[in-house]
Amino acid sequence: MIFFVYSMLAFHPQLDFSGQGNWGKGAQTSMDVSQYIIYIFTFFFILYSMSAFLKSRKKEFGIVMMLGMSVLQLRRLVFLENVVIGLASTIAGIGTGLLLSKGMLMLGTSVLALEQPLAFYWPVRAAWFTFAAFALLFVFISLFTAVILRSGTLIDLLKGSAKPKPEPKASAGLAILAAALLAAGYIAAFVVKGVVVIMALLPVALVVSVGTYFLFTQLSVYIIHKLKNRQSLYRSKTNMITLSDLAYRMKDNARMFFLVAIISTVAFCAIGTLVGLKSFLSGFVSASTAAMKYESYAGNKEQERHTALIERELTEAGIAYKPYVIRKKYALDEEKVRRFALIPATDYERLTGERATLGEREALLFYSENVNFGEETGPMPDSFPMRDGTVLDIRENAAMPASLAQITYADVLVVPDAAYEAQPASDDDSISYVYDVEDWPSTLAVAKRLMEQLQRNGEHHSFMARAYELNQLHQSFGQILLTGLFIGAVFFVAAGSFLYLRLYADLEHDRVQYRAITKLGLTEGELSKIVSTQIGLLFFVPIVVALIHGAVALNTLQNTFNANLVKESALVLGSFAAIQIVYFLIIRAGYVRKLKNVL
Amino acid sequence: MLEVRNVSKVYEGKIAYQALSNLSLTVPKEQFVGIMGPSGSGKTTLLNVVSTIDKPTSGQVIIDGKETNRMNKRQLALFRRRELGFVFQDFNLLQTLTVKENIIFPLTLDNVSVKEQDARVHRIAEKLGIAHILNKRTYEISGGQSQRTAIARAIIHDPKLILADEPTGNLDSKAAKDVLETLQMLNREEGATMMMVTHDPQAASYCDRVIFIKDGALYRELRKSGSRQMFSRKLWAYCPPLGGRKMNFRQFAVKNVFRNMRLYAAYFSAAHSRS
Ligand SMILES: Nc1ncnc2c1ncn2[C@@H]1O[C@H](COP(=O)(O)OP(=O)(O)OP(=O)(O)O)[C@@H](O)[C@H]1O
Ligand SMILES: [Mg+2]
Q1: Do A241 and B96 touch (CB under 8 A)?
Q2: Highest mean pLDDT: which of A480-494, A547-561, B77-91?
Q3: Cβ distance of B92 and A519 shorter than 8 Å
Q4: pLDDT of A426-450, one tens digit each?
């Protein structure tokens, strides 16, 4: 069903990006790729659930075989069963997908912040595609399960899942190795900065993955073993039954824990990165774009008409604004590497509302600190040669305030008016007409109209509006974000479902066991406690590990982008944790109820 | 010590089945009572009701002056693990625990100190001859050893009332004798009240009193007088009218045919049409 809804989105005619240049093509490809990922993932998921289902029925198979059913017949039985189940669930999936699709499309629209809602359409292509893909998948899985059945003798089948297993053992060496690997990976992740991150990414991911694997298969069993040896702890209250059960399950569950932890980590990272990147870009755009700005370059004859138009539109829309006019001339510094925008002191004072108080031969330097992605820019000069031979002393050297950053990307020199006038004019010179609007989000409609009339980049001018630029960003980023969120959500749901399946595979065994203990005099409170502890560990151990991995990864990412992702990552990780808690509570309640029913 | 008053038990189902009908019974302190009866006569059901695992449909079970139907679930659970000991027909050992851990399980729930736990488990294991398998797992031991483990678990907390469902069903005569003598010793030395279900007149001869059940109601009762051997012979004499093993099998076979009526019908009609 998930797959269908997604492919419906992917095939949506209004979301065909392939015609929209590079950016659109990238988005389209990423949607295609994620479709394959989801498909592959679904495949493994279904395979896993089918084999869990078959395992729980091993005994039944053993009995029918003992009663004389041939292996061939049995395999045909299983194959047919699977095909029927598969067909039914595919059709049911497409059906519910259709029913939910209106909602999904609406959700998609709002998540993407798209302007026209995605229209509902009759997704014939998506339906066929889904159907074919899943028919193939189920046939394949049916063949697969039939093969799984072949292994195992009759006695194995008869003993089924209740086949006794020796108590799992863990090696101390591997347990220490697990701790060491994880520590090494984390330290590396914390230490590396900047560009090195990209190079360190793969080895660190590998080391941490291996560490995580041993963490679950060895370290956890080892810790439980140590706990079991603490007799006074082990042999009191319900600890004995909880711990020994846990030791048994840990090994069984280790591989699944590992999978879930890694999958969830990937989901966290993907979503965290996307959300972080988006807010980083939004922040960047809104910090570097004025509420509305008309830039007029040398030789512009329409400047009067255009600025009048902007002012009229704003007034008509009833939007209060403060206009500023800032003149700029560009000049290179002594070494001819750094380009500065010269701004007359009076314009500067008007724009920022601060006094410049410059002497005749003095200047203020403001450097931009936005776009340096960890790269070091060389030292700033302490004097500046004007074209007419005078040299200005740089009195102050500071980071650029936002209002200046919105006018130019270059570093800024504020010079005395006289010095500015003395500087010869050049083709690079420009005048910024800045319209400061307090309530800038409300200017979107006006900005759109203006953008149509003025064009973003004219021959002698350019026009920018913060509301418009942000809107553009959301539009194009939304697609990718949706894809990412969707994949993240799919992985997360899948991880949860793995846990759920695992739990229900154990239900039968648990029932027998808890029935026995209850007869011996276990109170319901104690039963709930044992079950809660066990399910809790099952649910939270992999997720907590994933959260820690995710936090470390996002921290590293933050170092790469030189951006502060704390808020976003906290949001992402927090919401995952919250969902997981809700998930846990629901499943625990259901499980305890199921157990109590049969007692 | 134990008083069963007008207890009835009806198993609800597609066809409601009355497993116990208006059964009354009193067991004084320190008595060793045996319960015999044909398969399906309601012995396990009676034991379950007495042990508060199952609730009677009507009637009361009073143990040591306490009306068990007045207790809530929690109280019942605590009562079971402190005052009662069971040996189940199917053992109910916990797979994930070792033999020793299984035996001390009731003690751990009540936070008895580790030292005390060890002391008791060793004393009992010696007595039951399972000291050498204490660290084995439940799937590594034989049926008889499982049975003795279950007995050890039932008596480790010195319960006031011990209920045993065929505790010797899986044992050879030598092992059975050991177990029965252990139970008898518990009864004589520790003063435990006991109720034991058995099919074996030899085993029943260890009891002070044997109650026969048929179709969920009391049928007859024998008290020991004289030696165990004499009692045993008396019991053998009483068994045939209740149905020996042959009877049991015949009953079973007939019941089975009725149960599978539709299956047979389908089978025979198919065979008929083929021929
Ligand atoms: N849970 C149940 N639901 C319905 N009927 C049951 C249930 N348990 C037992 N019975 C029926 O109640 C009757 C008495 O069963 P019970 O287990 O008490 O017999 P028993 O005397 O212990 O037999 P055995 O000597 O074979 O152990 C049987 O006819 C059985 O079919
Ligand atoms: Mg029975």
Answers
A1: yes
A2: B77-91
A3: yes
A4: 777 888 888 888 777 787 888 888 8
B218 DSSP β-pair partners: B213
CA distance A265 to A287: 32
Judge: B109–A522 Cβ closer than 8 Å, yes or no: yes
**Distance (Å) from the alpha carbon of A230 to chain B's nearest alpha carbon:** 10
Q: What residues are paired with B66 via a beta bridge? A: B63
Q: Which numbered ligand comes closest to the C-alpha of B216?
A: 1
Residue A59 CA to residue A478 CA, distance in Å, equals 51
Query: Which amino acid, A57?
Result: R
Domain residue limits, chain B: 2-272
Q: Decide if B77 and A513 are in contact by the 8 Å CB cutoff.
A: no
Count Cβ atoms within 10 A of the Cβ of residue A426 and give its class: 0-12 exposed, 13-18 middle, 19 or more buried.
exposed
Q: Which atom of ligand 1 is nearest to the CA of B166?
A: 27
Which of A306, A309, A494, A340 minimizes the C-alpha distance to A410?
Answer: A340
Tokens of B137: 């797992």
List residues bridging with B212 in a β-sheet. Answer: B36, B220
CA-proximal residue: ligand 1, atom 28 (nearest)? B40
Q: Is A67 helix (H, G, I), strand (E, B) or coil?
A: coil
Q: Using the predicted structure, report yes or no on whether residue A6 has a pLDDT greater than 60.
A: no
Quick check: CB of B13 below 6 Å from ligand 1?
A: yes
Using a 6 Å cutoff on CB, does residue B45 contact ligand 1?
yes
Q: Do A362 and A391 form a contact (C-beta atoms < 8 A)?
A: no
CA-nearest of B62, B19, B65 to B39 is B19
B41 close to ligand 1 (CB < 6 Angstrom): yes
The domain defined by B2-272 folds into: Rossmann fold (3.40.50)
Q: What is the per-residue pLDDT across A230-243, written as a single tens digit (0 to 9) for each?
A: 877 777 777 888 88
The pair of structure tokens assigned to B37 is 């009866």
**Residue B43 in contact with residue B197, Cβ under 8 Å?**
yes
Mean pLDDT on A386-399 = 76
* pLDDT classification of B33: cutoffs 50, 70, 90: very high
Of A62, A48, A280, nearest in space to A152 by CA = A62
Q: How many CB pairs under 8 A join A and B?
A: 84
Nearest to B111 among A237, A522, A525 (CB): A237
pLDDT confidence band for B62 (50 / 70 / 90):
very high
Residues 6+ apart with CB under 8 A from A71: A65, A149, A150
Listed in sequence order, the DSSP H helices in A151-214 are: 154-159, 172-191, 196-214
Give contacts of B95 with chain A, Cβ < 8 Å. 162, 164, 509, 513
Cβ(B44) to ligand 1 under 6 A?
Answer: yes
Candidate of B43, B89, B168, B211 to mutate for ligand 1, largest count of ligand atoms within 8 Å of Cβ:
B43
Evaluate whether A147 touches A50 at the Cβ level (below 8 Å): no
Residue in A with minimal Cα distance to B115: A232
Strand order in the sheet with B66-67: B17-27, B2-11, B58-63, B66-67
Tens of pLDDT, residue by residue over A314-338, are: 888 888 888 888 888 888 776 667 7
What spacing in Å lies between the alpha carbon of B20 and ligand 1's midpoint? 10
pLDDT band at A33 (very low <50, low <70, confident <90, very high): low
Helix axes B245-259, B261-274, angle to 10 degrees: 70
